[in-house]
Design goal:
The chain is α/β, with parallel strands linked by helices. It has 12 helices and 11 strands.
Length: 293
């Protein structure tokens, strides 16, 4: 048995499928399937149930996953010790972030980090869903609430606000509501409720009880574009909306406040690249803190 077999096993266990694990590892799916089968033969145990919908761990597989993850953590710690002997920061760090923060804030600033550390590769994955750090879907995650379970390290980055906005053209044609009662008579742009990844992001009712969207978009940036097009009044991140001269704030309800958290798995804490990237994100947020509130 070698580490590559364990690495492949963990990738399949975390992805729940051969193809997804193969893509993450950069291997052919047939190679991954063959290596998993060889590992099972070597251990004289069936590690996965092979279903039409994917792969699930057997009881033996669950027990072996705990062993494999302990070995993985030991290897991470050993690599961290070796990294500390050199000055250069190298390796890949994947950051998972909501699209508002990831695209509108981080994407324009992470180039500074890669210029500081040419050996560092950054992957920014701004998608509107939560990430599993324990399954290594991301090395660092930006979340909208502090995680309460798991071996995770979390630090609050910054509070941010959300408010009502409309396009200048929309207000010129339809006026701007002064209160919640008037807001009800306007078309509303909102999120797709059953795709909200966190209860803290189900906030429409705080602006208008019984809020009903006439146009729903599952991403924050998509909502921005819908409002800019004149589709109606929407709830937007103020740090994004205030940069767009064709948008105006609507005073029918006061802005609300939420927070961003930086989170990573405890096992990667010793890695210098994780500490460098985490510190940089904290640095740029502190530098530009005024735009968030």
């Amino acid at each position: 048995m070698n580490w590559d077999d364990l690495r492949i096993f963990l990738a399949v266990a975390r992805a729940g499928q051969i193809l997804g694990a193969a893509k993450r590892l950069g291997l052919n799916h047939a190679t991954v399937s063959r290596r998993v089968a060889a590992l099972e033969e070597d251990l004289h145990a069936r590690l996965f149930h092979r279903l039409t919908t994917g792969m699930t761990l057997t009881p033996a597989g669950e027990a072996f996953q705990s062993v494999a993850e302990r070995m993985e953590n030991e290897i991470i710690a050993a690599r961290a010790d070796l990294e500390s002997e050199g000055d250069e920061i190298t390796g890949t760090v994947r950051i998972g972030a909501p699209d508002g923060f990831g695209v509108a804030f981080l994407a324009a600033r992470l180039g500074e980090l890669t210029r500081r550390h040419p050996g560092l590769a950054i992957q920014l994955v701004p998608v509107p869903r939560s990430f599993s750090l324990s399954r290594r879907e991301a090395d660092i995650a930006i979340t909208v609430e502090r995680p309460e379970e798991g071996r995770l390290v979390a630090a609050k980055l910054v509070d941010y606000s959300l408010g009502l906005y409309a396009s200048k053209q929309y207000v010129a044609e339809h006026g701007s509501p002064a209160n919640a009662a008037e807001l009800e008579s306007h078309p509303l742009v909102g999120y797709v409720e059953d795709l909200v990844m966190s209860r803290t992001l189900d906030y429409a009712g705080e602006f208008l009880p019984g809020w009903t969207s006439s146009f729903s978009v599952s991403s924050a940036l998509g909502q921005v574009e819908a409002v800019r097009s004149g589709a109606g009044i929407g709830i937007l991140h103020t740090f994004i909306a205030r940069t767009l001269p064709d948008l105006v704030a609507v005073e029918a309800a006061r802005p609300i406040r939420r927070a961003y958290w930086l989170v990573y798995h405890e096992s990667v804490r010793p890695l210098r690249r994780i500490q460098v990237v985490s510190a940089f994100i904290g640095e740029i947020v502190e530098r530009d803190r005024a735009i968030f509130v």
